[in-house]
Write a structure and sequence with these properties.
9 helices; single chain; mainly alpha; about 65% helix; AhpD-like
Length: about 180
């Protein structure tokens, strides 16, 4: 059970209500993560804006999933891994990709693996990536723009992963089929 208040549209601070209403209209429910974040309207707004901005990057659905899930798995987020598995399914991402990410296995293409490797390098090294890591990433067809976009995705995921760790957000019923624990 979450340690934090799980707000509804009715109990949320006024500045959070519109975002919760939008989520409820789109998904039929207010996700637990949003219910927790609603306590801080600024955090909820930042998270949803970062999410929108990240989906507008040069990455396609598979690449978005690689960045999100690589970070979620590395951060051991009990909530975000199942949530992003469901999101990946809704975006028609190949199940082989989502399962490889969840199980920390090699991805099916060299380019997606390079994206995963660079994402891990950024996360694990706190942005202090080596020249060899950067060169290997660029050699697969990515560029500096995509490195910066990984940082944008990481910014979004730090918010949700850390909130879920601290608040102990329960996994929503709509994501339960994709429950996950680190191997």
């Amino acid at each position: 059970m979450s340690k934090f208040t799980l707000h509804t549209v009715e109990t949320a601070p006024a500045e959070s209500k519109a975002i919760l209403e939008g989520a409820q209209k789109q998904m039929g429910v207010v996700p637990g993560l949003f219910s927790v974040m609603a306590e801080s309207p600024q955090l909820l707004k930042a998270y949803t804006q970062l999410h929108q901005l990240f989906t507008e990057t040069s990455f396609d659905a598979e690449e978005l999933t690689v960045v999100w899930q690589t970070i979620n798995v590395e951060h051991e987020c009990h909530y975000c891994v199942p949530a992003h598995t469901a999101i990946a399914h809704s975006m028609n991402v190949d199940v082989a990709i989502t399962e490889a990410l969840r199980n920390e296995e090699t991805l099916p293409t060299e380019k997606l693996q390079a994206l995963k490797d660079m994402t891990l390098s950024v996360v694990r090294n706190r942005g202090n990536v080596s020249e060899s890591d950067l060169s290997a990433f660029v050699a697969t067809g990515y560029g500096h723009q995509q490195v910066l976009e990984i940082i944008l995705g990481l910014s979004q995921k730090v918010i949700s992963n850390y909130v879920n760790h601290i608040a102990e957000t329960d996994v929503d019923p709509m994501f339960q089929d994709f429950a996950w624990t680190k191997k």
